[in-house]
Amino acid sequence: MAEQEGTDVVPTEQKAGWSSFIKSLASMTGDLSSMTAPPFILSPTSLTEFPAYWGERPELFADIATGKTEQDRMEKVLRWFICTLKGQYTTRNEKMGSEKKPLNPVLGEEFFGVWPDVGYGETTLTVEQVSHHPPITAYFIQNQKAGVTLQGHSGQKTSFSGGSINVKQNGHATLTASLPGGKRETYLITLPRLQIQGLVWGSPYIELADSTAIVGDTGYIATIDYKGKGWVSGKAHSYKAVLSHGSKSIRSYEGQWTSIGTVAKSNEVFTDATVPKQEVQVKPIEQQGEWESRRLWAATAQGIRSGDYESASRDKSRIENEQRQRRKDEAAAGQPWQLKYFEHVDSDPVYKQLAAQVKGIPSEEDAYIFRGRA
Q1: What is the three-class DSSP state of 96?
Q2: For residue 201, what pLDDT band results from cuts at 50, 70 and 90?
Q3: pLDDT grade, residue 366 (50/70/90)?
Q4: How confident is the model at residue 224 (pLDDT cuts 50, 70, 90)?
Q5: Which long-range contacts (CB under 8 A, 24 or more apart) does 325-333 make?
Q6: Which of 1, 109, 288, 351 has the fewest beta carbons under 10 Å from its own?
Q7: Within 10 Å of residue 336's Cβ, how many Cβ atoms?
Q8: Which ranges of 64-163 would DSSP assign to H, the alpha helix?
Q9: Cα(308)–Cα(305) distance, integer angstroms
Q10: Nearest to 226 by CA among 235, 207, 236, 239
Q11: What is the secondary structure of 141-158 as a DSSP string?
């Protein structure tokens, strides 16, 4: 969406509100997640749906365990990860013209989806909002036939500086590949930092910043550096990845995570993000449970899509007020919230083992372990 930079898309009737919002951002200190955005910048999608972006290239996800060697499998993990970034960070709101502020999930909100078997196995998704303060979303993705699973959690801490919103993503993901003969390989995946730019024109878009790592228990490590315009290829959404084993660098890759990336110093295509993504399939709203995202936020989402922001705001406030009252009632009754599909652990042993191989990231993190669905 970077191509919209410089385009003024703020509706005329919203210009005053948008100007006030930008001024409020500039004066805020600390986390911005509780700020109320102008209606036209709201997304009709809840944050609980966002883990689905990990699965929109199910053919690459399923292909990971087919690698013949440890290096081959690490490259397949790296390829899959980079090819999910476009869906996660630049195309999720293309139908609405620019990046939008997602709906803040309520505690216990759920999202379930599936990518049907079209030759490489069915891939399923389970998401649960496991915390409201701070907001944390836990997810589990599995292709049982391929023997590949991904589990993780994410939260966001936002701040404003230099005319952009900076989003630090908290959490991590762990990918496991089950190989013939019973062997299993595990990969730790850290999350990128985001910069939401284009705010001045009311046409926000996302750029990735800093670096992330994929750490395998086989000793292979991939580090990915992200930069915007003027770096590597001089284009937006650029990346450079280096694969190493121990102290030895083996290969590097570079390009754009929104289009094509190649093996460095060659024309060999390594990543192709132009392949159409496969959106997750969900049950019709009338068949969903009351805590499932699309049923819970149906009226709010309809109001946003139709431009009836008064109706959307009214329903959004109703849901949020009911959530606050529910938490008060539970606190008064001494009943702590019980997670349905995940179990919280204060220290993730897999993270602790693999994070020790990478400088600059915390040595320990908590985690939410998937315990299955009845």
Answers
A1: helix
A2: low
A3: very high
A4: very high
A5: 326/107, 327/107, 327/132
A6: 288
A7: 7
A8: 70-89
A9: 8
A10: 239
A11: EEETTTTEEEEEEEEEEE
DSSP string, 256-309: ETTSEEEETTS--EEEETTSPP---B---GGGS-TTBHHHHTHHHHHHHHHT-H
Where is 302: in which H helix or E strand?
helix 298-306
For the ranges 5-19, 232-246, 327-341, the lowest mean pLDDT is seen at: 5-19
Closest to 146 (Cα-Cα) out of 188, 180, 181: 180
Segment holding 349, helix H or strand E: helix 349-355
Interval 237-265: pLDDT, tens: 999 999 999 889 999 999 999 999 999 99
3-state secondary structure of 220: strand
99 burial class (0-12, 13-18, 19+ CB within 10 angstroms)? buried
Report the predicted TM-score, pTM, of the whole model to 2 decimal places.
0.89
224 close to 213: Cβ distance less than 8 angstroms: yes
8-state DSSP, 106 = P
Asked if 157 and 167 count as a contact pair (C-beta separation under 8 A), the reply is yes
- Cβ–Cβ < 8 Å for 51, 226: no
Q: Is the pLDDT of residue 3 over 70?
A: no
Token pair 């998704």 in the structure block, residue: 125
Determine the pLDDT at residue 5.
Answer: 41
HSE-CB for 270 with a 13 A CA cutoff:
27
Residue by residue, DSSP assigns 10-69 as: --GGGHHHHHHHHHHHHH--S--TTPPPPGGGEEEEEGGGGGGGGGS-HHHHHHGGG-SS
Phi-psi sector, 6: left (phi>0), alpha (psi -120 to 50), beta:
left
Cβ atoms of 14 and 208 within 8 Å: the answer is no
Average pLDDT, integer, range 186-200: 86
* Contact assessment for residue 259 and residue 238, using Cβ atoms and an 8 Å cutoff: no
Q: At what angle do helices 309-332 and 298-306 cross, to 10 degrees?
A: 160
Least Cα distance to 273 among 237, 318, 321, 230 occurs for: 237
Cα atoms in the Cβ-side hemisphere of radius 13 Å centred on 155: 18
CA distances from 228 to 2, 131, 204 (A): 10, 32, 15
- Amino acid identity of 326? R
